Amino acid sequence: EQRNPWCCLAWTLVIGTMNSLVFLINLLLMFVIFTIVLLPTIVVVYFGFQCHSQVLHSSARYCKSILDDNSSSALIILGFVIMSPLIVVAMAIYCSLARRLRLFMCFQPYSLAVYKGGKWCRYEGGGPCGCARGWNTQVKAWV
């Protein structure tokens, strides 16, 4: 049975807010994982650019005594070379963690706002969204 227009609007706002919150949690988790995994690349490229005479040319002691232009260029190249495998590792970690936490199962369809009596969980008991009992491991998040 369909809801009346005001109730439908209220439920749409609730579901939209919940889906936005789940999206922000996913985004925050992705940002933290990518920052931690890509930290070696960030550090290597930063020191390479900081000590290169054509870019920033810092007056720090380690730039004068250890890193010249050739070694700074090598650091920059090394940083960009190791970035690709680390991005793959970061994405694998994020996908594994999101699947383990069942974060994709928390997105709710807007049909819950239109029709009365809909279940808050699309699958019988799956995910941390109030329906974590007896989760079926064969259910895919994108179904």
Structural summary, described in words:
One of its GO terms (molecular function) is PDZ domain binding. Its main location: membrane. This is TMM88 protein. 62% of the residues lie in helices and 0% in strands. It has 143 residues and is mostly helical. The protein has one domain (5-112). The longest helix is centred in the first third of the chain and has 33 residues, at 5-37.
Spell out the blueprint of helices and strands.
Elements: H1 5-37, H2 39-51, H3 61-65, H4 69-101, H5 111-114
Helix pairs in contact: 1-4, 2-4
Low-confidence stretches: 130-135
Cα gyration radius (Å) = 24 Å
Number of helices: 5
Let me know the largest β-sheet: none
What is the approximate shape? elongated
- What's the order of the H and E elements? HHHHH
- Helical percentage: 55-70%
Measured between the Cα atoms of the first and last residue, the distance is: 24 Å
Overview features:
mainly alpha, membrane, single chain, TMM88 protein, 143 residues, PDZ domain binding
Brief account:
Helix content is 62%, strand content 0%.
